[in-house]
Design goal:
Blueprint lengths: L20 H8 L3 E5 L2 E4 L1 H20 L3 E2 L5 E2 L1 H7 L1 H4 L5 E4 L5 E4 L4 H11 L8 E10 L14 E11 L2 H21 L5 E4 L9 E8 L5 E5 L6 E3 L23 E4 L6 H5 L11 E8 L2 E8 L6 H8 L4 E3 L2 H8 L10 H4 L6 E4 L8 E4 L5 E6 L1 H4 L4 E3 L18 E15 L1 H6 L2 E3 L5 E3 L1 E8 H11 L1 E2 L2 E2 L10 E5 L7 H15 L4 E3 L6 H11 L3 E5 L1 H5 L2 E6 L4 E5 H17 L12
Parallel strand pairs: 3-7, 15-17, 17-20, 27-28, 27-29
Antiparallel strand pairs: 1-2, 4-6, 5-6, 7-8, 8-24, 9-10, 10-21, 11-12, 11-21, 13-19, 14-15, 14-16, 18-19, 21-24, 22-23, 25-26, 29-30, 30-31
The structure holds adenosine-5'-triphosphate and magnesium ion (MG).
Magnesium ion binds next to strand 21.
Amino acid sequence: MRWTHTLIPTLREAPAEAEIVSHQLLLRAGLVRKLAGGVYSFLPLGLRALHKVERIVREEMDRAGAVEVLLPALQPPEIWQQSGRYETARHVLYKVYDSARREWVLSPTAEEVITLLAAAEIQSYRQLPKNFYQISVKFRDEIRPRFGLMRAREFIMKDAYSFDVSDEAAQESYRRMYEAYTRIFARCGLRTFPVEADTGVIGGSLSHEFMVPAETGENEVAYCEGCGYAANVEKAVSAAPAAAPETSGGSTPAPEKFPTPGVQTIEDLTRPPYGIPAARQIKTLVYIVESRPVLVLLRGDDQLNEAKLAARLGTTVFRPATPEEVYATLGAHPGSLGAVATTLADRAVPVWADERLRGATDMTTGANEDGYHLRHVNVARDLRVDQWADLRTVRAGEPCARCGQPLRIRRAIEVGHVFKLGTKYSEKLGATFIDESGVRRPCVMGCYGIGVTRTLQAVIEQCHDADGIIWPVSVAPYEVCLTPLQVAEDSPVWRAAQQLYAALVEAGIEVILDDREERPGVKFKDADLVGFPFRVNIGEKSLARGEVEIKRRAGGLETVPVGQAADRVAMLVREARAGRGGTTGDSGRF
Ligand code: ATP
Ligand code: MG
């Protein structure tokens, strides 16, 4: 390919909208262009890199025994109602209307479609196991599309769905996908780590996310360097001490009401004249869960983890109550709320409490009367708790639940997600089979996603320097860029470049020939910005000595006789290809 034949609109400056380096480089290297927020066009080089990621995904899915299908993006809303997700996933569903005002849903994922397909086409255990995958455009109405392809409204996802006869067999399908994912990301030159994950609105019992550690990631991972434990903070647990240490010693006095005019927050009560540490306070939150109020109690210094709450409630349809709803529920405004049995009287609101409050004594909490709190509250004796659960978010430094070493927390990008689903969808949508003894049973399912476009950008986020992208050879738009410093038809430099180009193409190397009439500096800068793994500089002076220069984008320069250049470059490219992407890709601990 000649540079002037394709379209590589490089930019000197990053557009102001691009906040993170990979987004800036996508735009600066001319790989994508924005049409609207979260909606991008792929330009020729971006598409080439994307196709390479897709190819790796296909090869590894096929190797793992999955079979490719292509499912519709336009889906009838009825199937979402049937699965129950028309409501629970409504925040992300794009709805469109045809000329008859009939509603359609644009696919954010495809559990419903594939499960219905399996329901229609699979009847017998003899047809199982099956794992279907597709690589296709998905649509999600993201509240905050940002960071380019990282969180887009329209993006490419590989989604796969396994169907098995038993839980044990489903476990094996899960394991195969987990291994395929490890290989896929390593082949893309990405360093990823599997971490335990929340199953969220998808549901299911076991789940891992594949994370790329990055300061710009939107996830937080808690991990332990001692034993290798790693989990999304939405799911992570620690061995933080369960109860606040008793300060009064011996038996605690009865709760005592005291005036706290103007106190609105936990923080307010820590200050004089009160001086009550946050750890000795009870935080009382009111949520509206599917239109009914629920109280959630935590230690004052802990934060509610909404993903854990959702998992325990079994629904994601909840929100913090408004001040009016709070008043209607407890007869007091935020700032003076509590769950001491006497102050709740006969209010029928369910009370959930975080495990860390269990057994706590001498605590302070709101009196359900504006401007008053209660002290000397003994949780076991005085509170009315209906459900105990782990509802708090872990913090860095807390002891690991497995080995006791301090947990660390790091930001990361989620590029893939594997779930063991069980029979949730197969039961709702009728994906059953007749087993060996003639009994009809629901298929045991798994589902497995990779953000293909997000993965592409994650590679850039991980592989770049101040000059631009440093593509691993496995996903580079071209493997080699030839940079002749003269392009006049009759110049020896141009002739040498053309010969080298022809020899490399013949050798099966993907090469782009920079045939622009530009200054050397401009050509070098652009090649470095786009990040081709190898650049061959052909200049008048070195050619007069019979030599050309081979420069590796990742570092390293060598001079070779022009007659040997094609062989040498081809060898270097083949070595890099065999090196599985060229960069790290190790699967060590987080
Ligand atoms: P997130 O938590 O980032 O919103 P998710 O957990 O909702 O993602 P999944 O349903 O697990 O996403 O989708 C599978 C994969 O698709 C994710 O691991 C991610 O790589 C990718 N993905 C999800 N949402 C987006 C998006 N808006 N833009 C680009 N890729 C996405
Ligand atoms: Mg996910």
